[in-house]
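User: Can you predict the 3D structure for this chain?
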Amino acid sequence: MKSTIRTLAYMAPIPLLALCAHLGTHAQAQDAAGSTPSAAELMTEAMKTIKAVDSYTGEFIKRERVKGDFDAEHTFYKFKRPFKVYMKYIDPHPGQEVLYVQGENDNEIKAHKGSFPDITVNLSPYGRAAMKGSHQPIMTFGLEIAIKIMTRIRKQAEAAGLDVYKVSDGGTVHGEPVWKIEAKLPSTGRTVKAKDDENLWRFAKRVGQDMYVILHHNDEVSSPKDVDEGDEIFVPDFYASRLEYLIGKNTKMLRKESSLGELTSSLW
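Assistant: Here is the predicted structure, written as structure tokens:
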């Protein structure tokens, strides 16, 4: 199934009519009964919905806090399974294009500036040029991965015995009524020692937390490479202290994802 996705300051998916009709009937029945789904139910439905879509296109506006300042990007993109991402920048850097196909081009990003001198280059997804102005590598792009992260955080909260997720009516986004999921999480964490030859990317994978979240909470670490064996690194328990998601009542598509706290980002 192919879908066109429309965004304005957040992701606003519009799937094919057949999918809308099926999910819309289910959502209307829920509303008529006056019931409010749980956060777990909404995330499960959102995951089922996006898994039925093989490719989609749209516009993506991202606002992210990087080094204390908010950076914004507006791009047109195409996504195709199993994992192919094409992005063309609208603002800033109009005309700049990037292409990443998992398993091809030595797993590097193919990019060009779209302005003189317009040279096509291959970039490491984790390199400084590819990560400039972003907290996440291109391999984390896409609605399915966003929902996986949302679900992981919720399960972590549940495992810790926290009943913090609230669901309410979220109004209307681009003509579709949405559910709003909100959560407030504690700013707790633990200290973990770095191992030999371990940069912050490897360290983050080992401890199960986002690399830039860890970097943000450790002022003495200046970059992902600035880690030595035995360094004591603070690892936050949760990605952020405040979370908000909007999920369509009819389409069951994720419309917006915001993570707020010491590290602030608004994606989708």
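DSSP finds six helices and 15 strands in the chain. Residues 94 and 187 are 38 Å apart (CA to CA).
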